[in-house]
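Minimal example, chain plus hypoxanthine.
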Amino acid sequence: MSVPKAELHLHIEGTLEPELAFELADRNRVELPYADTEELRKAYQFEDLQSFLNLYYELMAVLRTERDFEDLANAYLARAAAQGVRHAEIFFDPQAHTKRGLELGTVVEGLWRALGSSEANHGVSTRLIMCFLRDDSAESAMETLRAAEPYLDRITGVGLDSAEVGHPPVKFREVYEAAAALGLRRVAHAGEEGPPAYITEALDVLGVERVDHGLRCMEDPALVERLVRERVPLTLCPLSNVRLRTVDVLAEHPLPAMLDAGLMCTVNSDDPAYFGGYAGDNFDAVRQTLGLTDERLRELARNSFLASFLEDDEELRGQYLAEVEAYEFG
Ligand code: HPA
Ligand SMILES: [Zn+2]
C-alpha cells in the first residue's frame, strides 16, 4: 500500500536480498555456504529470534566495502519509495561489522553515500540510528559510541537490538547516559521476546523516546495505561512477529487491540528481505488479515510521522502529514 508513511524500524542489514548477497559475494570473493538464491531462501524458516539472527549475521560477511553499503542502502531506498515510504529512520549494527575487521568509517561513509542523496534520488528523507548489540558487553557498546564520535553529524540516535532475553536494558545504562550527553536520540528494542518489565526499564533507565516492538506490553495492563498516557510510540513489525513466531499467525496479531487501547502504534518492516515484505507489504497484510479500516490505516501512517525524529524539520513533517490526510485509499 502506497499511503505516505515513515519507516521507523528497519535494520539496513536486514534488507540484504539473496540476489544482492550473491552479487556481493562474487564481487568480494566471499564463499557462501549456499549453492544459489533458491537454496538460501529455503534457510528463511525461523524458529525464533536467535535462529534468524544466526543467518542475519552470517550473510553480513558479503558486506566489505563502502560501495557495498551504498548499494545495500540504495536498493532498500528504491524499494521503500515504491511502497510509499517518504521518510526512513534506519538502524545499523556497527559492532556486527567492526568485529569482522571493518572500520566503522567504511560502514557510515558507505551508508551515507546513499542516504545523503536519498531525498534527491529517491524522494525519501532519512535518519541514521546506530544500534548496540545487547548480547555483546556494555564495554563494547561504550567503545562503539566513542568510535562513532567523528560521525555524529550523520547519526541521529542510538538503539539496542539482537538477542533480547537475558540482556535487560539496565545493562546499557551508562552507554545511554553517555549517548544522551552527546545529544543523541534514544530508542531500544524491548518486549519482542523479552518481558514487559524490559519495556518499563527501557523507558525509566535508558530514557528511550520510542519502544521498538513493545508487543508484550499487552501482558501488563498498567504498562499499557502508562504507554497510552505518555503517548510512547511503539514500532510494531507484524510480518516479523509471524516469521519469528512471537505471534502464531497474523490473524492473531494484537495490533487491533493495541489501537483500540489507544496505544500510539506504527507499522514497520524490521528485516524485510528475511520476513516477506517491506513497509507497504506490512500495511497490506494488516489491512487484509486484520481488517483495519481506512481511518485506522491513516492513523498508523500519521503516527509514523508524529513519532519520527523530524523535530529539526517541522516544515517537512507538516508536508508529510498533509500528504497522509489527503491520501485516498483505493
Ligand atoms: O527483530 C530484531 N530483533 C532484535 N534484533 C534484531 N536485529 C535485526 N533484527 C532484529
Ligand atoms: Zn528490529
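Residues 30 and 61 are 7 Å apart (CA to CA). The chain has a mean pLDDT of 98.
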